[in-house]
Amino acid sequence: MASRLEAVYDWFDDRLDVDDASDFAGKAFPAEDSYLLGEVALFCFVVLVSTGVFLAFFYEPSTTAVEYEGSVARYQGQEMPAAFTSVLNITYDVPFGMLLRRMHHWAAHLFVASIALHMLRVFFTGAYRNPREPNWVVGTGLAGLSMFAAYTGYALPYDEFASTAVGIGYNVAGSIPLVGDPLAAIVFGGSFPTSATIPRFFFMHVFLIPAAIAGLIAVHMAILIRQKHTEAERDGDVVPPGSSRPAADGAGVDAAGTGTEVADGGRAGIARDDDSIVIGLPAFPNQAAVSAVVFFLTMAVLSLLAGFLPVHNIAAYGPNDPASTPSLIMPDWFLMWGYGFLKVVPSWMSVDVLGVHISSEFIGGLLLPGLVFAGVAVWPFIDRAEEPEHFSLNPLDRPPQTAVGIAAMTFVMVASIAGMDVLVAEILHTSTAELRPYLTAALVVVPVAAGTITYAVLGGFGDDDSDDASRSDGGEGDHD
Ligand code: HEM
């Protein structure tokens, strides 16, 4: 029996180099909880694709008027766009339709949230530095695509609220100097909303963008496997389980019970500052078990959210009505900062340069968000490390970088509050016109203040101890 199994193994090994794959089974995953955020994002993507496939069986990407025959009494017998009626059907008449629609919705939110948190973990621990800059840039692309995925999905039910919000995107796209009008016509299928908009968005939402995300995730993972994870600084030299030999340069600490993986099969110790090897759980079976737990926890959270929290109530909004505009329009929380830029950039900022019109809508809606993304993408080349760095850093030991990170987070938060200016004005019993200059000023002042305070609290002004400490810990490496 055993020899038959070996023969089968050899057959596959000849063709697929399975031995190489079993090397991967020994790849080490540092046992850090915050390193699981990327996995949460990954599992959300899996849930998004699987629930999306279910929804696509019942969704009709068309604005052709059809008679509604479903169970929402208010609309029975009415002629409404097929896209809208099909989402009503999914929600109220298709078995498990409401649950899976809600799961798709909450998975989209958790996807973006986990990407943002994952990105913050990578940022604050300096894991973007040499040699991981390419993966940081790929990640930035993934963050942008995840937002486009959500935006295009938002339009699909073709209800009054969503189509008005999506129309804002049409105006922003049209505001791009020189190429705006043709580009908006290509993406939106003519001047929004036309009968071509929904089929085009459907194609982008279910195929183009997920395929691009899947491709980039594959590149992201391939780079990760090739480069290995960063690892938190070790407390001391490490003696692998079952070995009594200390590390070459000193007494070791016992790593028994951590599933330590070492390069030479577990015999020799590893010096504290040896970054040629990662200490952590082997991919199989230990990390696979942890990942399975993360997967089921992600599913459990999404099921709970879907079970208890309703999503975008299209029956209440009704089908798209070109003749009316809902009183309060706001995008989802993760697009709110971009909407905030649109609100705070004053119309007098529109200029004509060499006969080309640069509108305030373009500045707020595309230029500023574009600059934020560009800033994120080039950051590892600003905070450059000349030599490869494989240990992650403590954010408390890096006042400048941590201050920049806190300032950037505050900037996005203030911009998001500006996006909710109608609500803020209501709470403060004032008008949005009166509020706006304050929001514009806050967008500059609050992040600068937050960054400066962070820098001061971490000893950036004059306290050299923290810097020296991190360097002597072997973490900081050579920086420009
Ligand atoms: C679809 C979105 C994404 C998925 C599924 C994903 C997945 C992952 C996973 C599973 C890991 C390994 C475990 C971990 O460190 O969490 C990882 C590492 C990494 N990710 Fe992402 N990620 C995504 C987006 C991003 C973004 C937006 C950035 C930054 C802009 C980024 C930058 C990185 C870097 C630099 C590493 C290596 C970190 C290290 O070695 O410590 N990723 N990613």
TrEMBL record:
| Cytochrome b/b6 C-terminal region profile domain segment(s) | 270-460
What the entry lists under SUPFAM superfamilies is as follows: a domain/subunit of cytochrome bc1 complex (Ubiquinol-cytochrome c reductase), Transmembrane di-heme cytochromes
> What InterPro entries has UniProt attached to this entry?
Cyt_b/b6_C (IPR005798), Cyt_b/b6_C_sf (IPR036150), Cyt_b/b6_N (IPR005797), Cytb/b6-like_sf (IPR027387), Di-haem_cyt_TM (IPR016174)
State what protein this is by name: Cytochrome bc complex cytochrome b subunit
Keyword set, alphabetical order: Electron transport, Heme, Iron, Membrane, Metal-binding, Transmembrane, Transmembrane helix, Transport
Keyword Heme (UniProt): yes
Q: Does the keyword tRNA-binding apply?
A: no
Composition bias of kind Low complexity appears in 247-265
Where is this protein primarily located? membrane
- Which GO annotations describe the biological process of this protein? respiratory electron transport chain
Organism per entry:
Halobaculum saliterrae
Q: Which GO terms describe its cellular component?
A: membrane
Q: Which stretches does the entry tag as region Disordered?
A: 234-267
Which one of the record's GO molecular function terms can you name?
A: electron transfer activity
Its placement in the membrane is given as: Multi-pass membrane protein
Reading the lineage from the top rank, the first entry is Archaea
Its localization reads: Membrane
Query: Start and end of every Cytochrome b/b6 N-terminal region profile domain?
Result: 8-233
Which parts pass through the membrane? 40-59, 106-124, 136-156, 168-190, 202-225, 289-314, 334-355, 362-382, 402-425, 437-458
